[in-house]
Design a protein that fits this description.
Number of strands of chain A: 12
Largest sheet of chain A: 8 strands, mixed
Number of strands of chain B: 12
Radius of gyration of chain B: 21 Å
Structural class of chain B: alpha/beta
CATH topology of the domain at 8-97 and 178-251 in chain A: Rossmann fold
Helix content of chain B: 25-40%
Number of helices of chain B: 12
Strand order of the largest sheet of chain B: 6-7-8-3-9-10-12-11
Number of helices of chain A: 12
Structural class of chain A: alpha/beta
Radius of gyration of chain A: 22 Å
Strand content of chain A: 15-25%
Order of helices and strands of chain A: EEEHEEHEHHHEHEHEEHHHHEEH
Oligomer: heterodimer
Helix content of chain A: 25-40%
Shape of chain A: globular
Distance between the termini of chain B: 47 Å
Shape of chain B: globular
CATH architecture of the domain at 8-97 and 178-251 in chain A: 3-Layer(aba) Sandwich
Strand order of the largest sheet of chain A: 6-7-8-3-9-10-12-11
Amino acid sequence: MSEVMGEELLRVENLSKTFEIGGGFMRKPLLLRALQDISFSLKRGETLGIVGESGCGKSTLGRCILQLLRPEEGRVLWLGRDLVKVHGEEMRKLRRDLQIIFQDPLASLNPRMTVGEIVAEPLKTLRPDLNAAQRKERVRTMMEGVGLQPDMVDRYPHEFSGGQAQRIGIARSLITGPKLVVCDEPVSALDVSIQAQILNLLSEIKERLGLTLIFISHNLSVVRHVSDRVMVLYLGRIVELASGEDFYADPKHPYSRALLTAVPIADPKRARQRNIDALSGEIPSPINPPSGCTFRTRCRFAIGLCAEKRPPLESAGDGRLVACHRWREIDNSAAMEAQPAAV
Amino acid sequence: MSLLDVRDLSIGFHMPGRDVQVVDRVSFSLEQSETLAIVGESGSGKTQTAFSLMGLLAKNGYSTGSVRFDGQELIGMSEAQLNKVRAEQIAMIFQDPMTSLNPYIRVGDQLTEVLMLHKGANKRDATAEAIRMLDAVKLADARNIFRRFPHECSGGMRQRIMIAMALLCRPKLLIADEPTTALDVTVQAQMLELFKSLTDEFKTALIIISHDLGVVAGLADRMLVMYAGRIVESGTVDELFYDPRHPYTLGLLDSTPNVETKAHRLRSIKGSPPNLEHLPDGCVFNPRCPYRFDHCFAERPKLTPLPGGREKACFYGAPLVHREAVA
């Protein structure tokens, strides 16, 4: 797929986002560092999967890229322009290119608007140059494009099933002809047979319209099917960034390894054979993260160094980045284990 | 005699001006220390089936048929008798552990209350037993957790506490309704391991209700696939995963993305499940079925035994060779 991918669309540099929790008169708020020092770039036509468990910052990252949340530090360069510095009317113009699809399809649709109004809404705000007839025409075309009957435009969201509602959400996101779409858990609320329909629809639309996607999900099986590259977040930091192929065949970071072995497999024999390298414990609080490597409290490879020094995100070849002091050793020992015993 | 024997269980709800049937003549049985999975999508009736076993249907719900548990008929049993069975012989774990624990009462008191009420234990014995059970569900530092309130525990800890509470009276049957759906994947893996070791250790029969075929594959011995309030196929997990005979089971398997392989396109099931108030004539799956033929519109198939003890409710007789979704 790399040959069809074009120039760099998006470059994120040292992005950080902090939330203040509580606080008040004479009381200092607690600081929750949701994202720290995130850097990556995205090429036209690429799909980047962002995975991690709850609270890792994956949704916050999606929102910071689109400037739905403003990061305190770092730059978000969209075709060379820093979105963090863009405001008002200028930002509105750029929003045609930058859209989002949300998780809960019904909750993200206004129950008092007809489907036609919902899908046309972004055009009203972002394309004031179009007249009502032109808007209507685009809505009908878009409805067909996502597999909805165009004559459903006068119905209300509650008349639709979850899968159809997500199609409406997708139509609304795509109506302005965006270049980058952030999909934030777009199929997590859907039943498995419907989930497959929506995943197929997203791949098909992506190819047809040449979209660039950021696909945020906690479901590693789903991410495998859609992503060219995969980013793993843990407590607001990138721990691994690799091509989908490399990542799923041979994860390097101990957290990536644990995540992948924890994914249940719909194959009884494989499931019985599999040795689950179950991580102990749960994710620590991002308000008071561990020193050094934030993963060390759950890592069976952790040594003294991991508590003292935060591992840098370093190159592991083939454009892959890993943040672990010991990934080389772990990689070697895993290779040893995988080798059949000498006869 | 089976531990649980469900015959022609139907469940309905009285709604203003009408009656909606959500489960239609479901029959299955469960042996001691066996794990049975009930699989299906939203609205398939899997959770209502479990609720009715426990006598937990909503006020406007009713069930008919027979549910024999350990020789006793549960349908029509008085609330007092049912309370006794529920606490001591059948226990249930729900999807969201936060809403099933009382937020105002310390974890320890919620656990000991169960033993003091149902087993007549004194405070000291109940405490010792509860702490032993917290250890059994692999909660480190059980004594500390004992003094906490539910909100001071993480999601995974709460689900372990729920499991400990369910096992306190050593029930013969544990029903777990989507027990890992609200959990992160690494915590889910811990929980599935825990279920496996506990059902071994305590010889508890387990009914696990799940929409996730991955969860079921690793845990269950047998499974039922439900669609629109009916069992469409039943058998061992190996039979259903490697040789599905009902087109819906095949469709579910094909729709599930696998983390070990990358498919360009998933084979999905076209359309969506029917409205239970307006079921199609004949087979309820026929609007979505690529294998349908004339007869499927004329008659509703019954769950019928096949050689080897498995069952399916489908008229299509030939092997299921992949077909493109119906137009």
